Amino acid sequence: MTDFTIASFNVKNLIGADQEYYRFQSYTPEEYAWKKDWLSDQLLTMDADIVGFQEVFEEGALSDVVDETTQRARELNNVVIPDKTKRYRKRAIFRRLASDGYAGAEIAFAPNAADGGTPGKRRPGVAILSRHPILETEIIQDLPEPLVIDFPALRGMGGDGGRYTLERVSRPILKARIQVGSEVITVFNCHLKSKLGEFITPESDDFPPEADLTHYDPVARALGGLRAALRRMAEAYVLRRAIVAEIKAGRCVIAMGDFNDGENAVSSEIVSGEHPFKNYAWMLRHDATHGGDRYSREEDKQIRGDVEAVKLYSAEKLFVRKSLRDMVFTAAFGGNFESIDQIYLSRHFHPENPNRIGEMTYFSVLNDHLTDGSHPEAPYNKLASDHGQIVAHMSLAHDDR
């Protein structure tokens, strides 16, 4: 048996002091110290073996947080772990209380291809921290070939339905193959396009008209929301394509990150895959020649097997079903509490799969720090993360399969 934990952590604009990341936004040395202190405490509390980070502008700033966490783990161990003179030092509780920090751990950083380093116009990347060996990594952002999404013409209309082209995802997708025990797990860490509207700035202006809220244009702002949603769903497809390729190559997959949508949103369902029907034998065949031409029972079994083989399962949802809890949330905005950070598991980890290589035993969420933003000067709103952190506790059963 090999136990490990894997987590997702949106650190909210992690960059060093006195650097303008977005327009007029930067941290003083004192603010950066506060942020590093808070992030280190969270990371120590999580104590996860593999962590996917989002909104990282600089690898050096992340390394500062990791090093501080390791130092705090050592100091904590000196206080809470009994020395060899204590008869009770071998009790199981002390194995649980001990933390190794991240001495010797590896960091894989994926900078944003759109980040030119210009003050006020920085763009964040993502990273993976792992106590287990990272065998290889790949950054998916600038697509080798543009993704051209064709739309069919509506029924009764000639010509085609137009197309949407994507050449770059807004933030990198980091793929890493990680050795955990005797298994190699492909981990994807992503940060899909947010719900913030995308507006076009005319050549003669300094800002898009929709940004001027004193001349509020609800229709134009709705169009900006449409652009953002279309981009997010196209990015979800790019991630899904990479996930399916790994699964079909015989590899187990864990995909995590900030999906900027709830689990049941279209973009999230693109990533996780279709949910199979319980029975396809009642469905009219794709090539039906009469009204009773349905799929056979053998075909029903095959179809469900094909769909389930490449589907991902929400760790949160598996835990909620197992624990009888009724809700988990990782973000609070505009009075809405929802889960937009997820950890998805391939069928290799599903508890009902007889050929599973392991399964999730527990799921943790750290969200007590989340506020609704009603106090504009609250330090948490600027310096702490505006996301909850999620941790999946996994157990691999190598020889029990």
Describe this structure as you would to a colleague:
The chain is an alpha+beta fold. The protein has a single domain (2-273, 310-396), classed as Deoxyribonuclease I, Chain A (4-Layer Sandwich). Helices cover 28% and strands 28% of the residues. It is built from eight helices and 14 strands. β1 (2-14), α1 (29-46) and β2 form a beta-alpha-beta unit. The longest helix has 31 residues, at 218-248. The chain is globular, with a radius of gyration of 23 Å. The model has no long low-confidence stretch (mean pLDDT 91).
Q: Provide the succession of SSEs.
A: EHEHHEEEEEHEHHEHEEEEHE
Range of strand content: 25-35%
Tell me which CATH architecture applies here. 4-Layer Sandwich
Q: What is the overall shape?
A: globular
Q: Strand count, sense and closure of the main sheet?
A: 6 strands, mixed
Mean pLDDT across every amino acid position: 91
Task: Let me know the number of strands.
Answer: 14
* Discrete helix count: 8
Helix content: 25-40%
Q: Given this structure, which CATH class is correct?
A: Alpha Beta
What's the CATH H-level homologous superfamily?
Answer: Endonuclease/exonuclease/phosphatase
CATH topology: Deoxyribonuclease I, Chain A
Strand-pairing-aware structural class: alpha+beta
Q: What is the straight-line distance between the termini?
A: 11 Å
Taking strands numbered 1, 2, ... along the chain, how are they ordered across the largest sheet? 3-4-2-1-14-13
Number of separate domains: 1
Radius of gyration: 23 Å
Query: Which segments are poorly predicted (pLDDT under 50) over 5 or more consecutive residues?
Result: none
